[in-house]
Amino acid sequence: SQQGEEDPQALSIQEGENATMNCSYKTSINNLQWYRQNSGRGLVHLILIRSNEREKHSGRLRVTLDTSKKSSSLLITASRAADTASYFCATPDSWGKLQFGAGTQVVVTP
Amino acid sequence: KAGVTQTPRYLIKTRGQQVTLSCSPISGHRSVSWYQQTPGQGLQFLFEYFSETQRNKGNFPGRFSGRQFSNSRSEMNVSTLELGDSALYLCASRSWTSGGGETQYFGPGTRLLVL
Hints:
The structure holds 2 protein chains of 2 kinds.
Chain A: E1 5-7, E2 10-14, E3 19-24, E4 31-37, E5 43-50, E6 55-58, E7 61-66, E8 71-76, E9 85-92, E10 98-100, E11 104-109
Parallel strand pairs in A: 2-11
Antiparallel strand pairs in A: 1-3, 3-8, 4-5, 4-9, 6-7, 7-8, 9-10, 9-11
Chain B: E1 5-7, E2 10-13, E3 19-24, E4 31-38, E5 42-50, E6 53-57, E7 64-68, E8 74-78, E9 87-94, E10 105-106, E11 110-114
Parallel strand pairs in B: 2-11
Antiparallel strand pairs in B: 1-3, 3-8, 4-5, 4-9, 5-6, 7-8, 9-10, 9-11
């Protein structure tokens, strides 16, 4: 079963626009992680936000976490064609096993 | 540091055969996890090894097995391949502390096609 569910499933935007995707999860968490995957390749870790953090930034990425709503959002600002990828949220259980959502497929057109 | 490496990158097998995939973690990382990714089921956890011991296992049949060597390198074996085993197999490494509070780093994956 999937712990995280991303919304929307797919997103199409133009270069320079912002892209926002959301993730909901079911159980309490220690942290939540976002990953990017380009065209069936490996997962690239983007950002980890801990349960006691509400917002975190990394370059053009901004992640928020609302533990009361069991949700997180990933914002990519000023998107580029190279941001075209699938984005996944993942939460580890107490052993560190990651449970992934189904992902949001983002297409950025020039 | 070098990243997580996986070999081979692509593999074609026929039903009934067996396959072994290899993963070398980031230097100093003692934990290796394996995940299967398919279009239908998404990313699913297979198992995790730490210090040569399986620490966690997902809901996969016994045909899927793994091991870890003293240098932390891990292998995953699938016996009696089925068409449904066609997938991208990803391994991830981490330094491993309790509570899963650290980042896991993924390799590029091995794409397995079963004909």
